[in-house]
Amino acid sequence: MFDPAPEIGWSGQAPMPRRLLPLPWLCCLFPLALATWPAAAAAETYQHEVELALDFGASIADRGPLAGLDEGPPVFLGLTAGYAATEWLLLEGFGGWLANDSSVVLLAGPRLRTGYYPISASLGLKAGAVLLGTGLRFNLAPEVGAEMRIGGRGLLGLGYAVDFVPGDPVLYHRVYLRGGYWFY
Length: 184
Hints:
Elements: H1 23-44, E1 49-62, E2 75-84, E3 89-98, E4 103-113, E5 119-132, E6 135-150, E7 154-164, E8 171-183
Antiparallel strand pairs: 1-2, 1-8, 2-3, 3-4, 4-5, 5-6, 6-7, 7-8
């Protein structure tokens, strides 16, 4: 870059020392650095955890307004195993049985949760297989929930998931409670 007066400034004054970042940038970055510093320190000391939880609740099949009511009880029972890679990212596997049409669901996928302790909210997306009476099909299940730590390692949660089976007009709504344990 061309500097017409390297020894003196434009007005004939001595040159000002060069700063790495202008002062307005430092004023903007300093609060951001303070806000993220505890999270970065916590991430360095985070212990990876393994979760094992029992899910139970209701599974309601939405077959449309003209569908018959010849389905079984709206009960669902499942087991979730998860690995907490970080405080906010969980990798989970889920297996469940839906009593209303005797289907078996096997899903896996990530779940993101807030880092608040002892209560946190979560949002996840799982994909896998569902074994219906018509055969094995692909399943996609977004979920939302909240969970609370009890006694440090205990887990109690509430969740909602929707099972989408492409090509099948039926939506399965699962509302469930989750009780489990975190292993270190």
